[in-house]
Specification:
The complex is a heterodimer.
Chain A: H1 3-45, H2 50-54, H3 67-98, H4 103-116, H5 120-135, H6 140-165, H7 168-176, H8 181-192, H9 194-209, H10 213-216, H11 236-244, H12 249-282
Helix pairs in contact in A: 1-12, 3-6, 3-9, 3-11, 4-6, 5-6, 6-9, 7-8, 9-12, 11-12
Chain B: H1 2-8, H2 19-66, H3 69-72, E1 76-77, E2 82-83, H4 86-117, H5 120-135, H6 138-165, H7 169-174, H8 184-208, H9 212-220, H10 225-254, H11 257-262, H12 280-287, H13 294-330
Antiparallel strand pairs in B: 1-2
Classes of the chains: A mainly alpha, B mainly alpha.
């Protein structure tokens, strides 16, 4: 009898310690988010002004803004989404609608999941080899293509998941009124899975808007206003990289402002995407 | 019954088009759509194949010149055109190991908190916050690490580590030398923060998949929460947790921008974790645009090939483990 209480006590103590640890771990994890956002707001907000959105990147020591990298990022992201989304949706459609149980689908799903977390710098090297080295110069097109390669797996994954969730009864109902399969997919399945598919595209945009590594040696960088996609194009992440590592104070503060803009855009996109997904679940 | 199909194809019945012709067109559309989607699915495979082929092709000159010695030589000299990959490989592996050593226990404890302790109304907000942490672009971690985290470590943490580990034989070598702020150690910590959300969210999903009956039975026997987690949840979820950890490891190995800012870019292997080093991805990011000469470029691409092969293997193991788990849950 003498041992039992102490055994209980030690078990209870061990439980209290580990539960305390898990509280601590959660506080630790969340504190990074708070810390990073706080520093970003503190450092970036002071530099935020209209000039940031209307002026070009300055030479060291002069005032200026981030207009050309912002435009460059927008243009390349748009093109990447225009290339990557249809490709991803079509591939996801095959996997969920036509070949849900065949060999090709399981291979593609496996490879796609690996591409989803493949190092983005390797994708940059790939596009450098197939485009920059062949064309002989860096270009905005190469940058857009490397971003598109990142968009594809994200969209494939969400499209497949969302189409798989569409109840088969809807498909059967469509088939029973004589709708051909391709029209059934386009008019019924896509419509039922629309919110989820849009979520996937938003997440893909969030993912590529901060990507730096694949742009470093595809789109390179450009000091000046240029929307010529056959020439190097500036982008926000690459400019942040360059300015942050420079010794000039005003370049560094512009880098912080750029970082704040990107983070806010990315967080807004992922929150909207989540709201859309939640709405779908509740309806 | 064909009316719907006719309308859908944009042809009004009033036009009295031959029914057979319409059906024929729909059938062709059907076949075409099927083939287009199939081609798109195959494109995903082509992309992967393209990556491998282009990397192998690009790294051929370097591999031909240096042979296997590329893998274990430490020298990296663009002037004499002598290149070896072991320093970046070492940096990549060590920074990822530091990251996993910290992120795995912390991530598992957070997942435990979210599934067993956290009140219901708090679960979603905390889960979303952790996922937002995953969404922050890596360049933000980089700039934050360079201007905020590294100076903090240099001033407060590293001198402390040097003093307390100084008298202990092995640890004194690991934590030796001046506190630079930037280096392998700092890069490992930043990577830990970055992979934490991945490990947490996968572990949470896996923990939630443990059948409540098992947990309730253990509680019914009088187990404490910790005992339930340790002897019921963890063994049941083991495969999935390992899959999640490997997924996080894959991320850490390939992470570029955050590491490039804080690693110091020194092509040498140092006994001390506080010394500057380099990783494969940081080397490529820093040197690729400035590389002159085919051999230099080719050596960097060969580094990329090595990185891709390592991450491919790690990610493939991760996926196989998670697939095995899904198969079991499905049964």
């Amino acid at each position: 009898m003498a041992r039992a209480p102490s055994l209980y006590a030690s078990r209870r103590r061990r439980n209290a310690i580990t539960m305390g640890l898990s509280f601590g771990a959660t506080a630790f994890g969340l504190s990074w988010l708070v810390l990073i956002l706080a520093v970003l707001l503190w450092e970036g907000f002071s530099g935020l002004s209209l000039a940031v959105f209307t002026e070009m990147t300055p030479p060291p020591g002069a005032a200026g803004g981030l207009l050309n990298p912002i435009m460059g990022s927008l243009v390349m992201t748009t093109i990447a989404v225009l290339i990557g989304t249809p490709l991803g949706i079509l591939a996801g459609t095959y996997m969920a609608e036509y070949g849900r149980y065949d060999k090709l689908t399981s291979v593609v799903r496996f490879i796609n999941d690996i591409l989803l977390s493949a190092p983005s710098i390797v994708i940059g090297l790939f596009v450098y080899e197939i485009m920059v080295a062949q064309m002989g110069h860096f270009s905005g097109w190469a940058g857009a293509v490397s971003l598109a390669v990142i968009v594809v797996p994200v969209v494939v994954r969400t499209t497949e998941d969302m189409l798989t969730l569409v109840p088969d009864t809807l498909r059967e109902a469509a088939a029973s009124i004589g709708l051909p399969r391709s029209l059934m997919i386009q008019k019924v399945a896509y419509r039922a899975a629309r919110a989820g598919m849009i979520t996937g595209v938003l997440l893909a945009i969030a993912r590529i808007s901060g990507e730096t590594a694949p742009l470093l040696f595809t789109a390179l960088n450009n000091q000046f206003w240029s929307l010529d996609l056959n020439a190097p194009v500036a982008s926000l992440p690459v400019v942040i990289f360059q300015f942050a590592l420079s010794p000039y104070k005003d370049w560094q503060s512009l880098a912080w402002t750029g970082a704040l803009i990107i983070t806010m855009a990315v967080l807004a996109l992922s929150i909207i995407a989540r709201l859309l997904a939640a709405q779908r679940r509740s309806s | 019954m064909v009316d719907v199909a006719l309308q859908a194809s944009g042809i009004s019945i009033a036009e009295q088009i031959d029914r057979a012709k319409v059906l024929e067109r729909l059938r062709l559309g059907d076949v075409a759509f099927r083939h287009i989607t199939r081609a798109a699915a195959v494109t995903v495979l082509v992309i992967l194949g393209g990556i491998i082929v282009s990397l192998v092709w690009g790294s051929l000159p370097a591999l031909r010149t240096f042979g296997v010695s590329f893998l274990y030589e430490e020298v990296w000299n663009p002037v004499t055109e002598k290149f070896g990959a072991i320093a970046p490989i070492y940096g990549t592996v060590v920074t990822s190991l530091i990251a996993m050593l910290i992120a795995v226990p912390v991530g598992l404890f957070i997942a435990l908190f979210l599934t067993e302790l956290c009140p219901m109304w708090l679960r979603r907000p905390i889960g979303i916050a952790i996922e937002l942490l995953a969404g922050i672009p890596s360049i933000i971690y980089g700039i934050w690490g360079l201007f905020v985290f590294a100076p903090f470590l240099q001033q407060y943490v590293q001198p402390f580590l040097i003093t307390i580990f100084g008298p202990i034989p092995v640890l004194s070598t690991l934590f030796e030398g001046p506190p630079y702020g930037i280096g392998i150690f700092t890069a490992g910590l930043i990577l830990a923060i970055m992979v934490l959300p991945f490990i947490t969210s996968i572990s949470r999903d896996v923990f939630e998949a443990v059948p409540p009956v098992l947990k309730e039975a253990a509680y019914g026997l009088g187990c404490t929460t910790w005992e339930v987690a340790r002897y019921v949840v963890l063994p049941y979820a083991r495969v999935g947790v390992i899959g999640g950890v490997m997924l996080g490891l894959g991320r850490a190995l390939g992470e570029t921008m955050a590491v490039t800012f804080v690693i110091g870019n020194a092509h040498r292997i140092s006994g001390s974790l506080l010394a500057p080093g380099t990783t494969i991805s940081a080397t490529i990011a820093n040197e690729f645009t400035e590389a002159v000469g085919d051999l230099y470029t080719s050596s960097l691409i060969a580094l990329g090939l090595i990185l891709f092969l390592i991450t491919f293997v790690v990610l493939a193991i991760a996926r196989l483990m998670l697939m095995r788990l899904n198969a079991r849950v499905g049964v």
